[in-house]
Amino acid sequence: MLVNMKQLDFKYVFMTFFTFIVFVGCSNVIAHKILYQPPKTNKELSKAYFYKYLDINTSDGIKLSAVKYITPIDAKGVVLFLHGNADNITQLPFALLNFVKEGYDLVLLDYRGYGKSEGSPSPKGLNLDIQAIIKYLSKNLNKNIYIYAQSIGGTSLLGTLNQMDKSKIRAIVTEGSFLSYKQLSDATGISIPFTDYKELEPYAPISSDRNMTIPLMLIHSSTDEIIPYSQGLALSKHFINAEHIKTTGNHLSYFRFRFNRKKVFDFFDKNKNYQYIPPIKPIISVEDNNISDDNITKGVE
Question: Nearest Cα to 132, choosing from 124, 36, 175?
Answer without folding.
Answer: 124
